[in-house]
Amino acid sequence: MNTELRRLRTALTTASLLAAIVIGLAGCGGSGSSGFDAIASEATTVQHVIDAGDCTDFEGQTFCASGVQATGMFEGALVKIQPLLEPLVCEGVPISEKCTAPLAFTTEGFSTPTSLLAAVSETEAGPWKLAAVEIEEHADGVGPQTVSIAVPGRTDASEPTPLIAAVLVYEGTPPDDLPASAAQLSDFGVDLVYVSPRLEIVVPR
Amino acid sequence: MQRRSNAPKGIKDLFYETRVLSGREFTVTRFAKEVLGGAVDPVMLGYIEKGKRFPNEALVRRLATIREEPVAQLLAVLYRDRMLYAFGRELRRALHDPAAVEGIADADLAVQVSRAIAALPDDGAWITTAKWRAHIGVAVRDKSRDKSKNSDVARVADLLKERGLVEQAKGKVRRVSRHFVATTLEERRALAMEFTAIYTKALLDKITLPERAAETHLRNHYLHIEREKLPEFYKRLEKAARSLAEEFAADAGAGTEFLNVLIVGTPV
Questions:
Q1: Would the CB atoms of B238 and A39 count as touching at under 8 Å?
Q2: Which of A71, A81, A139, A159 is placed for a possible disulfide with A66 were both Cys, Cβ 3.0 to 4.6 Å?
Q3: What is the DSSP letter of B224?
Q4: pLDDT tens across B95-151, in order?
Q5: d(Cα A81, Cα B185) in Å, to the nearest integer?
Q6: Start-to-end Cα distance in chain B
Q7: Higher-pLDDT residue of B228, A85
Q8: How confident is the model at residue B56 (pLDDT cuts 50, 70, 90)?
Q9: Residue B110 has what pLDDT?
Q10: With contacts defined as CB-CB under 8 Å, which chain A residues touch B180?
Q11: Are the Cβ atoms of B114 and A9 closer than 8 angstroms?
């Protein structure tokens, strides 16, 4: 029995060491949390705005659904993103990996000069990529104007790709050192954000 | 024998691993007879390993001797499991969920989810899916070695993907969010059981295991607060906890523990 126990002890020790080694090899630092309700975050704010169709403040920034009058420093102004019943169609050169789809929006009621940029993401949680915009300039810099976002897509996508577009409104000019992509919209240092409904982009075959 | 944290292990796991990891290919019958000295019927030992029955304290003492571990530590695991069982029984009534499976394994899903999230870097860096799944596999301790899409590992991976917590592409995976919200009845029950298991272990460590007391922090802070300030208080508490977790999060290894910080604030 003593020999048996010694073998058992040795085997258990070896097994523990092996388990520790496996955990060590597989590991990589991280943390997380779980709960019965969602923590307020930019992603949940974007999600709420899309679903509820209102304006909500989160950590000093205002997020609004398309067509809803803004609150705060841009009170009374609004951005209306072109409503779509069909998926956006990505138009591109057949030999290219990338294509773009136009998505128009209009702005109304901004009483001070503003700058507009656009960012797109597949989900509310980001990451967000800046997209090219083409603006039909209004003579005095105020009043309704039409803007077109060149929404990027991939020509090799075999299924419709989900898409959320965000119009970034800056009072005056945007910061000089904006990143091309960011984990959150707040990383673009924006004053007001308008988000589109959940869209899809398809590549014609 | 020094062991790593036994937080996710139940008394059933301790019996199972002692038999299986011995390397002697003990059957339940042989282990009951040759190692436990016939102190338990083999059928009963099978039930104990499956979590369908609890061992008596004498049997746990014998197991502690075999494992060369302090008896009090293994008894604390037994007491915690009994408390969890009692809690789970009442929880099913509270949730109007009589169909739920009886037993303390209810917390497994929540434990697996937390391990899977913590296995991904906080900064959103990509790691290989194989490495991530191997890490989940270690946490899940999937005894069936099931590699199919129905395995526990695949179930956890799919759940996190479905909830938008992880993103996968070209054999790699990264986190896009860090907070798992229990929504279905099964998830709510699992999370409730996990929270109770964490609290019960902490409480038992503090009051019954002096040698373990130092590694557990258990404290009650109390104050009068204006009712309308409660949301702001909770928001800042959450922010502080998250900031600390991200600052101290390290690569899992032989010198680390999987620390759970359970925060409760409630007016009484």
A1: yes
A2: A81
A3: -
A4: 776 555 554 456 778 888 898 999 999 888 899 998 888 877 766 655 445 555 557
A5: 38
A6: 43
A7: B228
A8: very high
A9: 85
A10: 32-35
A11: no
Give the confidence band of A19 by pLDDT, cuts at 50, 70, 90: very low
B29 has a pLDDT exceeding 90: yes
Mutation site for B-interface testing, chosen from A23, A58, A198 by largest number of B Cβ within 10 Å: A23
pTM: 0.64
Q: If you search the block for the tokens 């679903």, which residue do you land on?
A: A51
Residue that has been written with the tokens 């996190």 in this structure: B160
Closest partner CB to A34 (pick from B68, B182, B241): B182
End-to-end CA distance of chain A: 74
The token pair at A46 is: 């974007």
Chain CA centroid to CA B67, Å: 21
Residue of A nearest to B176 (CA): A125
| Listed residue (B71, B1, B35, B65) closest to A14, CA to CA | B1
* B127–A31 C-beta distance less than 8 A: no
Residues in chain B: 268
A2 touching B, CB under 8 A? Answer: no
Cβ atoms within 10 Å, residue A3: 7
**What ipTM did this prediction achieve?**
0.73
- Is there a contact between A32 and B118 if contact means CB atoms under 8 Å apart? yes
Instruction: Return the residue of B nearest to A42 by Cα.
Output: B177
Q: How far apart are CA A111 and CA B93, in angstroms?
A: 59
Q: Using DSSP, how many helices (H) and how many strands (E) does chain B show?
A: 10, 4
Helix (H, G, I), strand (E, B) or coil at B2: coil
Alpha-carbon distance of A42 to B208, in angstroms, equals 43
Nearest to B121 among A20, A29, A33 (CB): A29
pLDDT at res. B6? 37
pLDDT of residue B84: 86
Let me know how long chain A is.
205
* Burial group, residue B15, by CB count within 10 angstroms (0-12, 13-18, 19+): buried
A36 in reach of chain B (CB within 8 A): yes
Nearest residue of A to residue B246, measured between CA atoms: A31
Rounded-to-integer distance, Cα B79 and Cα B209, Å = 12
Do the chains contact at A12 and B182, CB–CB below 8 Å? no
Q: What is the pLDDT of residue B241?
A: 94
Answer yes or no: are the C-beta atoms of A101 and A201 closer than 8 Å: yes
| pLDDT the model gives residue B111 | 83
